[in-house]
Prior knowledge:
By secondary structure, the chain is mainly alpha-helical.
Amino acid sequence: MSSARSEFIAGVRAELPIVVGAIPFGIIYGVLAVNAGIPPLIAIAMSSIVFAGSAQFVAAQLIGAGIPALVLWLTTFIINIRHMLYSASLAPYAQRLSRPWKWLLAYLLTDEAYVVTALHYEATPSNNYQHYFWLGSGLMLWVSWQLSTIIGVVFGTQIPASWSLDYTLALTFIGMVVPLLKSAPSRPLDRPMFAAAVSAGIVALLTFTLPYKLGLMLAALTGIVVGVWLENQQLARKGVSQ
């Protein structure tokens, strides 16, 4: 039988493999933030307050390049729009929770926490303690992110550039996306989601040189449009109306 403790521990364990790839990413952010002229304490505080790796990474780059504040805010807002999709996906599982619980879990909702939590919710029967899995996965990442940021800020300049830690960002996201493409053991791939991932990846490569990271926005919008259109087509063929 599920309990708060067992769900929490399961969430922590599920997050561990992803944390291995996220720690170098946090170190890179710490190094990049300091090199961009962000005071160390502010760089660390950003990890606690913002707690959004991709947005922090891009923000540090834009600050270092002297980009106007309005462009900085708009860019990071666009990057974080995906969290609205994550929230919509997990909202049915959080409806019965109190407002403080919803606020806490919303704060802990990251790419990494979403992946393992969504897969867990889909694979296990609903119970009264499922939100503790979300809490465990989110806190596991939060702690590792704070520690890796501090390591990057304090010791980052001593890490050899030959380690190429920046590649861990792409590897981490690949590791998160691939499990989501599997809809069920009996069906190898979720075709709309697969098409969304591929189309977004192609657009991201083609628009990589656009300024202000606009390629990320175009890639995300492309993936959403392709995925939603194909899913609607799939439902229409089955005689289900949206």
